[in-house]
Each structure stands twice: as C-alpha cells, then as structure tokens.
Amino acid sequence: MRPIFVLIRKEFQQILRDRAMIGIILIMPLVQLFLLSYAVTTDVKHIKLALLDQDRSRLSRQIGATLVHSGYFDLESRPATRLQAGEAIQEGRADLAVIIPLHFARDLETGRSPAVQVIVDGQNSNTSAIALGYVTRILQEVSSDILIAGLAAAAPGAAPRFIEAQTRVFYNPEMESIPYMIPGVISVLLTVATMLLTGMGLVREKEIGTFEQLMVTPIRPGQLLIGKLVPFALLGFLMLILALTVARVWFGLPFEGSPGLVALATLLFLLTTLGIGLFISTVTSTQQQALFIAWFVMVFSMLMSGFFYPIDNMPEWAQRITLLNPMRYYLAILRSVLLKGSGLVHLWPDFAALAVFGVGILSLTVARFRARVG
Q1: Maximum Cα interatomic distance, the chain, rounded to a whole number of Å
Q2: What is the dihedral sign for C-alpha 227, 23, 278, 191?
Q3: Which percentage of the chain shows pLDDT scores above 70?
Q4: Calpha distance 295→298 (Å, rounded)
Q5: What is the DSSP letter of 312?
Q6: Is the Cβ–Cβ distance between 262 and 334 less than 8 Å?
Q7: Least CB-packed of 60, 64, 249, 345 within 10 Å?
C-alpha cells in the first residue's frame, strides 16, 4: 500500500504546483455553473413584441395592455400597417407581431368570432411555440372575462358557474428551469474535468518522459493505476461538493434526498469518466489527440443525456443510443434525488446501469493498460 500512497501524494504535489490545474479544479466549475445555469434555460421571457391595434377600442387596448404587462413580452414597436409589422419581424426588431383587426370589438359584441392575427418568427421553433402559447392563453383569458360579463348582464340574479382547475406543482413550484438544469450542469462539469484531467495528465507524462521513468520502478501496473486515478476521483468529489454548495446557497437548489445516494452515484459515474479518460491516454500519444477524442465523447454525452432535450422527445433510434450513455443515468439520479427525494427502491435500475458501465469500462481500460505496459 505504501507505493500507492506515495504516488497519490506525488500527484497532489504536482497539482498544487500547477496553477492552471488549480484554476481548472476550483475556478472553472464555479464559472461554468453560473454561466450555464443562467444561460442554458428553457424560460422564455422578454419576447420582442410588435403590436398593431387597428380597432383602437377599449377591448383592443385591454388586450394590448394584458400582453405588455404579462411579463413575457417587451413592446418594441407599434407598426401602422400589416406590412410594417412583417418588416419588424424580418429585420429582427420583433419576434412576434399581434394584429388586432378593425371592428374587432363590434364584431365580438354582435356575436361574431373575430380573429386576432399572430405572426411569429419561426427560426427558433421552441421559442416560437412558447410565445404562441402565451398569446393564446392571454386571448383565452380575455375571452373568458367577456363571456362572464355577458352572462352576468343577461341574468343579473344568477352568477355564471365554471369549472375551476385547482393546480399543485410538485418538486418545482415556481416551474423555473434553473433547478432542472443545475444537475445537468454538475454532470457536465464532472465529465469534463475528470475525463480531461485523467486523459491529458497521463499523455503529458508520456510526452515529457516521466511515465517511462515510473515504469522502470518496482511499482506494479495496478498500483500505478490506483495511484493515478484516486487523486482525480477525490478531486471529482471536491468539485461535486463545491458545486452543490453554490447551487444550494446561491440558486436555492433543494436537496430533498439522501447525500449517500448522490455520493454512491457519483462514485459509479466517476468510474466511467476516469475509465474513459484512461482509455484515451492508451490510444493517443499527444495531448492534442487526447483533447480531440475527449471533446467528441463529451459532446456525445451532453447531447444524448437529456440535459438539453428530453429523451422522450428524441426519435426512437436516438433514444436507443442514449442507453449507451452513462451520463443519462447519472443525470436522472441527480434530478430525482435532489428535486424529488427519490430513494434506491425507485432508482435501482439507473444505479445498476451505472455500475455495469463503471465496472465494465474501467475493467476493459485496465486490461488494455496492462497490455500496453507489458
């Protein structure tokens, strides 16, 4: 055991002497946590609105005021014609144009069904769909108010009755995207840091010749691997604790479940990322090659994990590919434990998958490492 502890101490000494490495370990996770948590969001606000009110009635002004004060739209322009409304979208001055036609209020009062035209910039399909949903909901609310007022006027003694939905939102009452995105950010941070540190660290030692010097010592290959991987695993846990602390204190991220489950899932996940990093070091001879392969693996892991897009919305063939991605299972565990307080009885399939990937990848990599050393 003594050679292993000597190697671990040597690795930590090298890390502490390398200021760039300290920045990667301590500063980079915090910067990325803040940037990604605020930038990668599904909340759609500040939609640039162009409002054309051709009717200029009390009702049309009410609709315009409701849109502007909803908190979703920023009134950027009031075009005078439909052509100008279209030009506002074409020139990028507006994301959405709402056109209230002439005689809108009169047609509504006489029992007709006037149409409010909505023109939307469809380049970003997700934002466009959400913006259309906002407008549709606001128009429906205004229509309901008009219907209630009409029924009350027709029968002053009888209050109209409607079905009222009583909603409760579990696990994310404010329905904000940040609590949902932060576990994904943490998964990405652990993947990037541990995979890069392991892969490029070993390749760097091969480039400068210190790896060959270690191989001529009495240290066995297994001891060498443990001495190299344990420090990066401990650094991974340090980054996890740092990220969770900031997420809890700054973002108010809940921690409903067991810290032990998070630690166990992280340990299994680190087996995969460290194993992949070690494998990369065995198939590359320069840091540039290692960086290229690691970047490809990281992009695949992020895109196919459910971090950016729900897995259920992917094509069936893509959903099958995600089954080969360890980050998918780790992200599902983090979200369930942190936000819902789920236990092992509900998450054991994800833990089992992580264990299979972790042990399998690390075992294959160790076998290849031993063969290369031999």
Answers
A1: 98
A2: positive
A3: 87
A4: 5
A5: G
A6: yes
A7: 345
Rounded alpha-carbon distances, angstroms, from residue 1 to 6, 219, 309? 9, 10, 45
Q: What angle do CA 66, 69, 71 make, to 5 degrees?
A: 120
In whole angstroms, what is the distance from residue 143 CA to residue 134 CA? Answer: 14
CA–CA gap between residue 99 and residue 117 (Å, rounded): 5
Catalogue all structural domains in the chain, each as residue range(s) with its CATH number.
Answer: 2-41+176-373 (no CATH), 47-154 (3.40.1710.10)
**Distant-in-sequence contacts of 287-292, Cβ < 8 A, 24+ apart:** 287/200, 287/203, 287/204, 287/207, 289/203, 290/199, 290/200, 290/203, 291/196, 291/200
pTM as predicted: 0.79
d(CA 203, CA 218): 21
Model confidence at 326, pLDDT cuts 50, 70, 90, reads very high
Query: In sequence order, what E strands does 8-149 have?
Result: 47-53, 73-77, 96-100, 117-120
Nearest-angstrom CA–CA distance, 60 and 144: 15
- Is a pLDDT exceeding 80 seen at residue 102? yes
CA distance 6 to 143: 75
